[in-house]
Design a protein that fits this description.
mainly alpha, single chain, MetI-like fold, AA_ABC_transptr_permease_3TM
């Protein structure tokens, strides 16, 4: 028996998708900013000679890369109030969890970007008496940043998809709004199909930009 598609309900409830898309974008931007604030210094600290800096950061990076983002979100939302005595609002908990999760990956992007720069330049800067942090800031990081931009964009697109995990703690992003709409209309095929198209429309441009930047950098390498 053929299925009777009724995509006209999308036109009726389009504000729901717009509202969900705006929340998804807000979560993604906030989590990306938090991830950068954590990941940039963490990536530098992971390359430090002193184990006082390197070991704790390495433990953080490996732990958060090796555990599912969903587990981290649920832990922060449900366990945080038990340990610290106050409840984070669901949206805030999601942003914190995704930001900390992303920070671990951004730290690895920073480390890989710095390691991709010719070590001779760092040695030359040190040989003329330039301090370690100054050499890193003035010589290495500006060059490494060019190599980091494509993976940074990929990480932003990945966070946009991970924001759907907020539905597990009732954050009203795109997936949660769609689930609520399905409970009202009983049309899951139409809504989930359109939801997939919406995510493709807002995610693929970032992936395309990242690929274009990578190709351009390879041509000028």
């Amino acid at each position: 028996m053929g299925y009777s598609w009724q995509f006209h309900i999308i036109a009726t409830y389009w504000p729901v998708f717009v509202r969900g898309a705006m929340v998804t974008l807000q979560i993604t931007l906030a989590a990306t900013l938090l991830g950068l604030l954590i990941g940039l210094p963490a990536g530098v600290a992971r390359m430090a000679r002193s184990p006082v800096w390197r070991v704790p950061v390495s433990v953080y990076v490996e732990f958060f890369r090796a555990t599912p983002a969903l587990v981290q979100i649920v832990w922060i939302y449900y366990c945080f109030p038990i340990l610290f005595g106050f409840q984070l609002e669901a949206k805030t908990a999601l942003i914190v969890a995704l930001g900390v999760h992303s920070g671990a990956y951004i730290a690895e992007i920073v480390r890989a970007g710095v390691n991709a720069v010719d070590k001779g330049q760092f040695m030359a800067a040190r040989s003329i008496g330039m301090p370690y942090l100054m050499a890193l800031r003035r010589i290495i990081l500006p060059q490494a940043l060019q190599k980091m931009i494509p993976p940074f964009i990929n990480e932003f697109a990945n966070l946009m998809k991970l924001s759907t995990l907020g539905a597990m703690i009732a954050v009203y992003e795109l997936l949660q709004e769609s689930n609520n709409l399905i409970a009202t209309t009983y049309r899951p095929l139409e809504i989930y199909t359109f939801l997939a198209l919406v995510f493709f429309a807002i995610t693929f441009p970032w992936i395309w930009i990242s690929r274009r930047l990578e190709h351009r950098m390879q041509r000028h390498a």
